[in-house]
Design goal:
Blueprint lengths: L1 H6 L11 E6 L3 E7 L19 H16 L13 E10 L8 E12 L2 E10 L2 E12 L6
Antiparallel strand pairs: 1-2, 2-4, 3-6, 4-5, 5-6
Length: 144
């Protein structure tokens, strides 16, 4: 978890990456989130048929993107705040429910200044549940 805290400023309940399993700095990253029965959002989405909100799956993908964009030495410069700037061509194909392991993948297509653009995909048991053709994350300079 220390490795994650060195890159992401997020903390519970908005830290949505449990582990980064592989990465090629400046190119791509893989990781996952274990979706537990105790997630805060399940009490209201939906109590009798809990489903992880799609917007939180996209947030998890964007958070993983920080690891694709991070330098080879994790933590260089410390955690930096990033915000989703745009999303294009997103497709949700299956629900994510308690007990699922949500596998995450983010591949950088363009990195220019404070903007990182990439393709992202989330899957459960090898089946794609969310695919994003273009996800842009804006990371302002410190103090901005």
């Amino acid at each position: 978890m220390t490795e994650i805290f060195s890159v992401l400023p997020h903390r519970y309940p908005f830290l949505l990456v449990d582990r980064v399993t592989e990465r090629e700095p400046g190119q791509w990253a893989k990781g996952y989130k274990h979706v537990s029965h105790n997630e805060w959002f399940f009490s209201g989405h939906f109590p009798d048929d809990p489903i992880m909100p799609g917007v939180l799956i996209v947030e998890a993908l964007a958070q993983l993107g920080a690891f694709a964009a991070a330098p080879a030495e994790l933590g260089d410069g410390g955690p930096r705040k990033g915000m989703i700037a745009s999303i294009k061509e997103i497709k949700f194909s299956a629900p994510v429910v308690p007990g699922d392991r949500l596998d995450l993948y983010f591949e950088i297509t363009v990195s220019k200044g404070p903007f990182t653009k990439g393709r992202a995909e989330a899957s459960v048991n090898g089946k794609t549940v969310v695919k994003v053709e273009e996800l842009v994350v804006f990371t302002p300079k410190e103090g901005a």
